[in-house]
């Protein structure tokens, strides 16, 4: 179905009815906030600095799960008497107690606890049996009631796949997730929100999650349409494919539009999907390691691209506190302060008309332009907002609010989606 602007008023009514949103806008802006800390985003941020007038929903991240996985390194999560329940760190508890103060800024704000995140263990065990699911569900109900939350968000990365072996998984995860969500919906009733975050990976809506089966239980689904700068891809969250900086391996050819199309093809209704926007950038992996086309014979022995960063380029990022051998993630506020406002002017800003995102280059010793990092800025956020409207999506989701630069990306998104910012 093709959505035109003439259909948007009708879509607005549908969205408000389905999502229970009292905002003036017909669209959602779901802001994840890394309050409790995350392995990719660093220590938790300051909840007192959030301007929640710019969003409709706040996904506070993260609650974790007591589990018995052998590779769990957080000793607090190994309490066998609380197996399969939700664990909240002291920082998370302190922040959740401040929710009433946040609601004074925005009385219509919906607040959810997000459970999980990259490297979070326990989901496969929780979902495995009806008894385990019941323990988790009671725990979720208790947390919602204790802190006056509007619902719960599950960020399981990832069913069946297990984050490429990082966390426990099994083939039955797909069906077990469906059971968990259906049972959660029954327990929470229609008055509380139940949402999930799902992978950009092409296997997400086909092999890892049964999208048609879980859709009726969910208020909306957050598409993590970012973290694409891996393999032979340059861009982190491009809206469309780039012609100037093309991807070599077909399997790496990702874009936000491609992700959305995959989920719609899997049977999802556009109005139930929120497009993920990353308030950060990534140095492309191909800058520091060989690009592999796994569809080719002897792929590992025959890289299709070679890394192009040398010691000087790596040293620049080391000065920013980034170890490119471990992570390539840089928050938007750091990109602004350290790269766009670099006193040494080592970076040049560009706009890719096809990808609809900005990127920075830096000069090699030979004077060649090297692709340094791609990210989001107000212009690209506005482009994604227009895409959301054109596709009839439910709205936007972003990771994460603490990475914004003086709230400018959140404000741009609120403006473009027509979200009321004064109360």
UniProtKB/TrEMBL annotation:
This enzyme's EC code(s): 3.2.1.14
Similarity field: Belongs to the glycosyl hydrolase 18 family.
Domain GH18: 27-420
EC class (word): hydrolase
InterPro entries: Chitinase_II/V-like_cat, Chitinase_insertion_sf, GH, Glyco_hydro18_cat, Glyco_hydro_18_chit_AS, Glycosyl_Hydrlase_18
Protein's UniProt keywords contain Ribosomal protein: no
Protein name (database record): chitinase
Top-level taxon: Bacteria
